[in-house]
Design a protein that fits this description.
Blueprint (H helix, E strand, L loop, with lengths): L1 E3 L17 E3 L41 H27 L4 H35 L14 E6 L7 E5 L2 E6 L2 E5 L6 E6 L2 E6 L18 E6 L12 E6 L5 E5 L5 E5 L3 E8 L6 E2 L1 E2 L5 E2 L8 E8 L5 E7 L10 E4 L2 E4 L6 E5 L2 E6 L2 E6 L25 E2 L5 E4 L11 E4 L5 E3 L3 E3 L3 E2 L6 E6 L2 E6 L8 E6 L3 E8 L2 E6 L4 E5 L5 E5 L1 H4 L16 E2 L3 E7 L9 E7 L5 E7 L6 E4 L2 E5 L3 E5 L1
Parallel strand pairs: 29-33
Antiparallel strand pairs: 1-2, 3-43, 4-5, 5-6, 6-7, 8-9, 9-10, 10-11, 12-13, 13-17, 14-20, 15-16, 17-18, 19-20, 21-22, 22-23, 24-25, 25-26, 26-27, 28-30, 30-31, 31-32, 33-34, 34-35, 35-36, 37-38, 38-39, 39-40, 41-42, 42-43
Length: about 600
């Protein structure tokens, strides 16, 4: 007979049925009898066999072996376990009608608890995604109060930078690592004079908060060792970890250097060509003219490890047709040929855009060049125009469409992280703040229409909806299915991202745009959200005649102003670290919560 041990799905650590072992249990073992006359299966005594008339001289039966005894014992144990398990289950099943009702109710309660646990887990995932964004805040339900403060000698020159779980306060000759919840100073690192640290959010201007936490923080400064200090002192770069561990080395080049994400250092250095700094000729209209047959330098773009100086990649942007205004600076109101001083750059997230005297290019920080230097129709190629590139919140980037017919208004081209690419009819609207959840779409402005395009891998670029007479210029936030946009009339409108339908409209006077609606970045200094409320630091007077700042909290559900804080400071830097708000004031830095 063959018996199989039963699989108990409820038993902790119970194996899968396919892994249950099978025992072949033997009914009769030589020398062992389990007949009816011997119900207990007693073994005969080999030394005193029973006498009988038929007794022969054959040898006595052999005693059972160890294996046989073990197998018999196993069969008995299995049988006992089955009987006891069945009895235990039967004893625990209710026999009355009321008991069975309670059993069903208990089962429902377990299901409810399981659903509630799932909702809780989803809420935790949502909060985790929110706090991972640059503008995510733990709670804006009520007006925040000052939780802690740190005095600074020169607050206006200080910079707040997010590190993993740490607020870095860079000012003077040092960087302090601060606990954003308590304000405790965790460490202090000397970095030198006039330090510039990053990566960080550009100061004094709003826009998409694309900067990731600085891990590590890279600071560039003068060592202060020169006879006169300042520019005469050798430059040093200090790389600081979130724990305050620091490493410093001296820079051996006069190139323009920029701190970047991932512990990178960017070098921008003109190579060859005419780099002489001298006055230029100005015509009667005040327009400067470059010297005849002027040939400016190429531009070397090099990205290296900030701590060691090891090169990660480099590229050369060749000199092209140069406009005079891209090659000059002004000294005492007079134009000066200055190819180094005229060099400009934008570094946002993982995207670097450079432009200067006859040179222009865009790169990802991994070395991928985004413009086509061999295509004369590509705006950055000849240095005449600078194209607009921008990173997308969920990965990927947006750049100009260079295939548009001459004389037409070109739109943007979207390059998604999963490899999908599609052209827009107009311009992409990248949100300043999000809740970290990808809605699978991108908003675009095309003329007087606002539309949405799919960013899903299987239908990238598909038009989801289009609404007429929605002249959106800026997307302040895209949170929980709602996009908060600024239109060209100055009104702030909430749009359902799934349908394009209006949800609410905020009067232009609430934000006091004045005639600055097309430059919302100079009126609103950022956007922050807890998923229910949108916090906007807004200048009190766009004309600048009256100093002051307002922290304005708008309910995302209905557009109501939940609370407002009026401040005397004309400008502030506001930052969120792990969901905790910190702000530069006229006295130093404070934590809000």
């Amino acid at each position: 007979m063959t018996e199989r041990t039963q699989h108990d799905d409820a038993a902790p650590g119970s194996p899968e049925p396919s892994e249950v072992h099978t025992f072949d249990l033997i009914d009769e073992v030589p020398g062992v009898s389990g007949g009816a006359d011997d119900p207990d299966g007693a073994d005969p005594d080999p030394e005193h066999p029973p006498a009988g008339p038929d007794e022969t001289d054959e040898p006595a039966p052999r005693s059972p072996g160890r294996l046989a005894l073990a197998l018999t014992s196993a069969r008995a144990a299995v049988a006992r376990t089955v009987r006891r398990g069945g009895a235990a289950v039967r004893r625990r099943l209710p026999t009355s009608r009321r008991g069975r009702v309670l059993l069903v109710g208990g089962t429902v309660s377990v299901v409810v608890v399981a659903v509630a646990a799932g909702v809780l887990v989803d809420a935790q995932l949502r909060e985790r995604a929110l706090l991972a964004t640059p503008g995510g805040v733990r709670s804006l339900d009520v007006q925040p109060a000052e939780r802690w403060s740190i005095d600074l000698d020169n607050p206006i020159a200080a910079t707040l930078i997010e590190m993993p779980g740490v607020l870095a306060v860079a000012g003077g000759t040092e960087v302090r690592g601060v606990d954003p919840a308590s304000g405790d100073v965790l460490w202090t690192v000397e970095v030198g004079d006039d330090a510039h640290c990053g990566p960080g959010t550009p100061l004094g201007i709003g826009g998409p908060a694309s900067a990731e936490p600085a891990d590590p923080l890279v600071c560039i400064a003068s060592s202060g060792g020169g006879a006169g200090g300042g520019d005469e002192s050798p430059r040093v770069v200090t790389v600081i970890g979130a724990d305050g561990a620091a490493r410093t080395r001296e820079l051996d080049s006069d190139a323009v250097v920029l701190p970047a994400a991932g512990g990178r250092l960017i070098r921008l250095e003109p190579a060859g060509g005419d780099q002489e700094r001298r006055p230029v000729v100005v015509d009667k209209l005040g327009v400067p003219h470059l010297p005849k047959d002027f040939a400016g330098p190429d531009l070397t773009v090099r990205v290296e490890d900030a701590a060691t100086g090891a090169e990660r990649w480099s590229d050369t942007v060749e000199f092209g047709a140069a406009r005079p205004d891209s090659c000059v600076t002004y000294a005492d109101n007079a134009p000066v040929l200055d190819v180094v001083g005229a060099l400009g750059w934008d570094l946002h997230g993982s995207l670097l855009e450079v432009q200067g005297c006859g040179v222009s290019a865009a790169f990802l920080l991994d070395g991928t060049r985004l413009d086509d230097p061999a295509d004369p129709a590509d705006p950055p190629a000849d240095g005449v125009d600078t194209a607009s590139f921008a990173p997308l919140p969920g990965g990927g980037w947006v750049g100009p469409d260079t295939t548009a017919a001459e004389g037409t208004v070109s739109g943007d081209v979207v390059h998604l992280e999963h490899g999908g690419t599609f052209a827009l009819d107009g311009q992409a609207l990248v949100p300043w703040a999000t809740d970290g959840r990808d809605p699978g779409l991108l908003l675009e402005r095309a003329g007087t229409r606002l539309g949405a395009r799919s960013t899903a891998e299987d239908d990238a670029g598909a038009r989801l909806w289009s609404m007429a007479d929605v002249r959106a210029t800026t997307v302040l936030a895209r949170v929980s299915g709602t996009a908060v946009v600024v239109d060209e009339d100055g009104a702030v409108r909430a749009i359902d991202v799934g349908t394009g339908a209006d949800r609410w409209t905020l009067d232009p006077e609430v934000l006091s745009f004045g005639d600055q609606v097309w430059a919302a970045e100079s009126t609103i200094f950022g956007a922050y959200t807890d998923g229910n409320t949108l916090l906007l630091p807004v200048t009190a007077d766009p004309s600048g005649s009256t100093p002051g700042l307002r922290l304005l909290a708008v309910d995302l559900e209905d557009g109501a102003v939940r609370w407002e804080i009026a401040q005397d400071t004309p400008y502030t830097q506001l930052i969120s670290i792990d969901g905790h708000l910190a702000q530069i004031t006229q006295q130093g830095v404070v934590g809000l919560g």
